Description:
Elements: H1 2-25, E1 33-35, H2 39-42, H3 51-58, E2 63-65, E3 68-75, E4 81-88, E5 94-100, H4 104-112, H5 117-120, E6 121-127, E7 133-140, E8 143-148, E9 152-157
Parallel strand pairs: 1-3
Antiparallel strand pairs: 2-3, 3-4, 4-5, 5-9, 6-7, 7-8, 8-9
Amino acid sequence: MRKILVIFAALLIYTTSQAQETFVDEGEWIENKNFNLLPKNMINYLGKVNQEDFEQLVGEPVGDEDGFIVYEIDSEYEKVPIAIRCMYNSKGKLIHVRFPTPYHMGYELGFIHFPEYKKWGSRKVYRNQFNKIYRADYKYKGFGAQIFYSGIIIYHIVK
């Protein structure tokens, strides 16, 4: 029995090392650009920057998904790679950005700390049948966000 376990462990170690070597050898590593997705930064881009200018900041698209252009960046706030999905209007201006995050509270605090938030901003919460908040919508001077507590942030333009 001991021999079988030793052989199994050796086989497992060997196949794992081979898989790692294969993974490293295939393809090339693309370095992502650092980008700050917090509201205080994103308010400067939504509705104001065109696709070419935005791609200079975040890099080339890595694909598209359901009408969204997908970019992979390194989030300055979370210090991890994140895929962001962006949409542009007919004039080429950035109007919509969505991305996953486990740190939704940091993004909420970013909204609350805008200058004169109490004067210009608003917050609407949505609760489930257990009276727990599952989504909060924020608006501030034409800039909006839907923050889902399940881990999705959506920035958009508000008219």
